[in-house]
Structures are given as C-alpha cells and as structure tokens.
Write a structure and sequence with these properties.
Blueprint (H helix, E strand, L loop, with lengths): L11 H14 L27 H13 L8 H17 L2 E10 L5 E11 L6 E7 L20 H20 L5 E7 L15 H8 L10 E6 L12 H20 L19 H6 L5 E5 L23 H17 L5
Parallel strand pairs: 3-4, 3-5, 5-6
Antiparallel strand pairs: 1-2, 2-4
Helix pairs in contact: 1-6, 2-4, 2-8, 4-8, 6-8
Protein name: Peptidase M28 domain-containing protein
Organism: Chitinophaga silvatica
InterPro entries: Peptidase_M28, QC/QCL
Length: 334
C-alpha cells in the first residue's frame, strides 16, 4: 500500500492504537500544566482586533506572484526575502534558518525556515506555523501531472493568515508570547516515503530557533483559504492537542463560523507538519486543514486548479478572526 502525502486513514484499529499511544506517551493534555511546566493562566479579556480578509487575500496573491515556491528556484529566494522583510516590520525578533535537507531521491534541497517572535520574554507561548513552499508537480491533476502549481491554498493561504495576524499583533500587542514559524520544503516528498515530507519542520523540531524552545501548544494552518472549505477535527490533532483544538473550534462556533468548523468525526489521520512538532519537539499541536466529509482533500489539492481563483475571503476571515479571538481573549483557556 502506498503511503501518501498527508495520508488519510479511517481504520478503527489505527485510531484505537493512536489513542492508546497518546495516553501512555503524552500527559500534557490531562493536567493543569503545559509543555513549559508552568500553570495555565486565566482568560484574558480585552478588545480583539478585526481580521482584515482583504489584506490576507493580498498576501496570498503576492506569494503566488513569485511563481511556484520550489526549492532551488529564484521564486524560493524571492519569496523568502519578502517574508523576512514583512516579519521584520512587525515582529520583535526574526530568526532565519538556512540549511540543506535531503529530498526523496537523495537530492540536496535548500531550506529556509523563518520565525517571527512577539513578546520574547513571555513564558506562556503559542506557536503558529504554516509551510510556504509549493509542491513541484501537479501529481493529482487529471491531465498533466508534471506541471508546476501555484499553491495558493496549499501553502500560501496559511502563510497569509499568519502574516495578517502578525500585522495585528504589531498594532495591538497581545499578552501571550507568540512565535510564527514559516517552514520550507514541506511538499517535496514522495508518496512512497512518508518521512520525505515536512523536511523543514523536521529540521526545526530537531534544531529549534532557540535551544530548548517550548510553547504551551501549537496551531498548524494548512489549506485554510479555499472556497467552500470545511475543517474537521483531525485524528493526530485530537490525540496530541485535543483540548486546545476544541477551544479553537468552540470559539469559531461562538463567532458564527459553524459552517466552517465541524465537530463531526470523519476519521482522518493526516501526516502533516504538526506530526514532527508533536513527536520530535514535544509541543502539543493541532492541524487546521481543509477536508471533505468523505475524508478526501479539496478537489484542487496538488492540481493546477490550486490557484488564486480558489481563494475565498470568507474562509480566510473565519480562520483569521477565530485565531485573533483565541490569542487576545483566551489563549490558555483549554
């Protein structure tokens, strides 16, 4: 059986096994402490900025304008420089990790991870991450599987939400410490080797930007801008960061975004960037990722149709406003 990118499984046995492993291997979800060892703080009450969906949409379009952000291309370098510039404008501190990772065919791939930190002295922290590269091939396309893709949703949308959030953090300082991690070389992998994906995140998890870095929890944003998108509570996310994910879903529903954030269990276990953050960095992290009710990805996933035309401001708004509501009012209220 092929192990596919962001592999989906609905086997009950796998779900039971995963749950059993979590109960024995990670106790952070079941007590009053977080991965920093500190007690959780009370709900923070205060005004919440308005997430500007038009701004986020423009950030998607800007990334797409560079061309496919594939390792070893001019678009990779140009987009990285732009992302670094934006985060330097808004963040307290910016870290840039430049390294070389090994691809599925033993090729050497330049990897650029970019981290923007807010309130660096704060002990209570939330890690927000997204990948900014694009898959080199439209291997799920019905016609030409060798064509390059724009990656407007799969990559650029998550980055755009975090850039707009960073702009808001700069305008109105949150109480919590925030780290925005934009990872590279996520989507270069081979379907026959699950570990060949998420290479930038694997590197960061083993070599964090600050030695010994910890956060209370993390949130991964992947494919969060598509029209008609729905987000289900993914299996590994429930295993490692179920309480934190439920907080986010509850806030989204309270804000009126129940059409986007669904509580139904569709049985999906997805291998994505949150897995190495959970298993290597040991930071409880959940994945916000577009899924269909039948467990499949959106029809534009890894096809030439993943372009700016699939991006919907309403989806960006639902995700971004929920994020701001959580960060400013109850980041540790799970």
């Amino acid at each position: 059986m092929n192990i596919m990118r962001k592999a989906l499984s609905i086997l009950l046995a796998l779900a039971i096994f995963a749950g059993a492993c979590q109960q024995s291997g990670n106790s952070n979800n079941n007590n009053n402490n977080d991965s920093t060892g500190a007690s959780k703080v009370d709900k923070i009450l205060g005004p919440v900025p308005v997430f500007q969906a038009d701004s986020a949409y423009d950030y998607v379009a800007k990334q797409v304008s560079f061309g496919p952000r594939i390792p070893n291309t001019p678009a990779q370098e140009k987009c990285a420089n732009w992302l670094i510039e934006k985060l330097k404008t808004w963040s307290d501190t910016v870290y840039v990790q430049k390294t070389t990772v090994i691809g599925p065919n033993k090729e050497k791939l330049p990897c650029i991870n970019i981290i923007g930190s807010f309130n660096p002295a704060a002990k209570q922290r939330v890690l927000l991450l997204a990948h900014w590269d694009t898959r080199p091939w439209a291997d799920e396309d019905a016609f030409d599987k060798t064509k390059k893709i724009d990656g407007a949703d799969d990559g650029a949308s998550g980055v755009a939400v975090l850039l707009e959030a960073a702009r808001q953090f700069h305008l109105q300082r949150p109480e919590a410490g925030i780290d925005i991690l934009l990872v590279d070389v996520e989507d270069y992998g081979s379907k026959t080797d699950e570990n060949s994906f998420c290479l930038g995140t694997q590197y960061w998890a083993k070599n964090p930007h600050i030695p010994g870095y910890k956060a209370n929890y993390g949130i991964l944003f992947d494919m969060v801008g598509g029209r008609g998108t729905q987000f289900y509570m993914e299996g590994f996310s429930k295993q490692y960061a179920g309480a934190q994910m439920k907080l986010f879903w509850d806030v989204a529903n309270q804000l009126g975004y129940s059409d986007f954030f669904r509580y139904e269990n569709n049985g999906a276990f997805i291998t994505d960037d949150h897995v190495p953050v959970n298993t290597i960095a040991n930071i409880p992290t959940f994945d916000i990722i577009a899924l269909q009710p039948n467990n499949d990805f959106a029809p534009h996933w890894h096809t030439q149709n993943d372009n700016i035309n699939v991006i919907d401001r309403n989806t960006l708004k639902a995700v971004g406003q929920t994020l701001l509501q959580v960060i400013y009012n109850q980041p540790f209220g799970y």
